Amino acid sequence: MATVVRARPLVAQAQSTALNIIDTDVHERAEMHALLPYLAPEWRKYITDFGWQPERLLPFAQFATGGLDRQDAKLPDGRPGGSDLSLLRSQLLDEYDIDYAVLTGWLDASALHPGWSEFKTALMSAYNDWQLETWVEREPRLLGSVHVNAHDPVGAAREIDRIGSHPKMMQVVLYFGDKAFGDPYYHPIFEAAVRNNLPVGMHHSENSPTALGFHRYFIEWHTLVPQVFMSEMVSLIFNGVFDKYPELKVIMIEGGTTYVPHLMSRADQQYKELRSEVPWVKRMPSDIIREHFRFATQPTEEMSAKQFLAMIDAVGSEDLFCFSTDYPHWDFDSPVEALPAGLPESLQRKIFYQNAQNLYPKMPALKPR
């Protein structure tokens, strides 16, 4: 939901519960020229000489004063939100006393066309080095993600092995395009993630279509974003990814939460009727979801505590949801306002930090409040 960022008194009110906060979705942004020092000379020419830019399929303007981002997150020189560390510190980490924030990036080759694959694999390696040097190593509260080119699974696995052992790299990130990642073609990525004890974060992108492609208006596409999350989950479950890699954990980022009960119910019913088609799947899909999936909360939908608790009851677990703000995007969710008032403090603790602590094996220890 779009959230008005309120002033300090409400932040103090939120802090009165002494809750730690782990934010599982924060977007840093790199301009193409910033990646050049991290690219080998043979790849730099794609940007410097050929003018390569990421392919964007979304045919809409985004109807907010800051476009993709909060208006106040844009830089005076015109750079978009997520481009400046000091502003991110001020508007997010300090403003809301965030303990740790997991960076999820903006540029990810997995959502792009498979063409020029070797270049895009090298680009993701450069991005990872830039992310560490520019953000993660300069701010102790920021944690990184390994970005890879999923269309080159062998190269992606090599990149995970190269940098995944860094103590502040929390996960592998795959942005969705129009490919179903449960396909065995992509399995080397999951194998490498498990080998490096990293969960996989999956995030939608401007290149994620609805079931009917791209509609006439942004509001149509944005309403239907959960469709691509459901599509990827179904692909992973029924292609047996979790049967093949039982240690794998996946967090679905920036798709919200309310679609999860429906998907559990629908997938369970289909499994009862059609499981002979997928004999390698040995458990009910809802059980697989509860064990292997987590869900970042943003964008949260407005609901009462009673409605929220009914959703928790429907999914059968308090362990599935991890708090996220989606900073600096226009529909940023403030930790002051994202969850309905009146939730049990034990559940708030799980959502705000304990579930993320349990998901990320390398999450640093929190200082008790």
TrEMBL record:
Keyword annotations: Hydrolase, Lyase
One GO biological process this protein is involved in is:
secondary metabolic process
| Residue intervals of the Amidohydrolase-related domain | 118-361
The terms describing its cellular component in GO are:
cytoplasm
Looking up SUPFAM superfamilies in the UniProt record yields: Metallo-dependent hydrolases
What's an example of a GO molecular-function annotation for this chain? carboxy-lyase activity
Give the matching Gene3D superfamilies.
Answer: Metal-dependent hydrolases
What this protein is called in its record is Amidohydrolase
This chain's source organism reads Pseudonocardia asaccharolytica DSM 44247 = NBRC 16224
